[in-house]
Amino acid sequence: MEIIRDVTAMQSRVTALRQQGRQIGFVPTMGYLHEGHLSLCRAARIENHILAVSIFVNPAQFDRQEDLENYPVDLERDLVKAEAEGTDLVFVPEQKTVYPPGYATFVEVESLSGRWEGAYRPGHFRGVTTVVMKLFHIVKPHRTYFGQKDYQQARIVHQMVKDLDMDVEVIVLPTVRESDGLALSSRNVNLTAEERRQAPMLYRALCGVADRVKSGEQDARALVEEMHRVIQEGTSATIDYVALCDPESLESLEKVEGPAVALLAVRFSKARLIDNLLMNTH
Ligand code: AMP
User: Fold this and answer.
1) Do residues 255 and 198 share a domain?
2) Domain extent at residue 46
């Protein structure tokens, strides 16, 4: 496994690989790797000649300094895990490598970026799309792998790739969960023991709604109220949003008559968690 910290070194390495006809699969991450990240690595490992992983805690996507400071980091452990998955190239740039003094260019996917996560974390998706665009230019992947865990992020990256005619295939893979249903997240380490005990209630709220939709409930407002109730009664978290949306536009639904996605974000004392569930009425 090669560890590369420099942009031009990475670009010349992947350009050479592409010239040899090698297909590159790319998993962008912010590190503190867990089974969710590793599930993306495994898929990319199987479907490509070369597996490239980036580890970069992107300051541009943090709207609060405190969240950035609390973000867990363990590069040594990440490198061991990446190597165990058969990673060929790990790109680990420094902040000043990605955003040198005078950096001035940002990419923004309009409207989708303003909803839900975007409304609660101003500038978040602008930071995400900018760094993803830069990483694509540095790693030059044929395929790139994202988790459904960050549903809105995956949707926005898809839109950016489509709108800007980028020659990369975006593959979105299912959320990996703990056995009690909690979606794996690097941020889960910031939950207190009591909050960790409560956190599976988020997934339970999502599944409860999916069950009600399956049995014919179409009133989105009643379904959203039910999710609110389950989370409020079962956890000490503050709800940022709970929503039932069109999976493409991410606009709130009034009536659930076709595909829908339930989205939620809550704040525990030191960890803000998000989760979602796609549901189909048919
Ligand atoms: P992050 O390091 O949080 O930026 O995540 C890097 C990638 O891993 C993103 O595409 C995430 O959606 C994905 N990811 C994070 N958690 C999970 C999970 N529990 N299951 C599947 N993918 C995940």
Assistant:
1) yes
2) 2-173
Task: Note the Cα 99 to chain centre separation in Å.
Answer: 21
**Residue-wise pLDDT tens digits, 48-81:** 999 999 999 999 999 999 999 999 999 999 999 9
Q: Which atom of ligand 1 is nearest to the CA of 27?
A: 7
- Residue 110 to residue 107: CA distance in whole angstroms: 10
Confidence of residue 282 (pLDDT cuts 50, 70, 90): low
What is the SS3 string spanning 171-238?
EEECCCECCCCCECCHHHHHCCHHHHHHCHHHHHHHHHHHHHHHCCCCEHHHHHHHHHHHHHHHCCCE
Let me know if residue 121 belongs to a domain. yes
Q: How close is the Cα of 147 to the center of ligand 1, in Å?
A: 5
**CA-angle at 172, arms to 166 and 175, nearest 5°:** 155
Pair 124, 242 in one domain: no
Residue 37 falls in the annotated catalytic set? yes
- Give the separation between CA 151 and CA 248, rounded to whole angstroms: 10
- Residue 176 CA, closest ligand 1 atom number: 20
pLDDT tier for residue 280 given thresholds of 50, 70 and 90: confident
For residues 166 and 194, membership in a common domain is answered with no
Return phi, psi of residue 136, to 5°: -65, -35
Side-chain-side CA neighbours of residue 84 (13 Å): 12
Alpha helices in 72-188 (DSSP H): 75-84, 95-98, 117-120, 124-139, 151-163
pTM to 2 decimal places: 0.98
User: Taking phi first (over 0 means left), then psi (-120 to 50 degrees means alpha), and beta for anything else, what does residue 123 get?
Assistant: left
Segment 212-259, tens digit of pLDDT:
999 999 999 999 999 999 999 999 999 999 999 999 999 999 999 999
* DSSP state letter for 253: P
Same domain, 154 and 190: no
Which residue's CA is minimally distant from atom 22 of ligand 1? 147
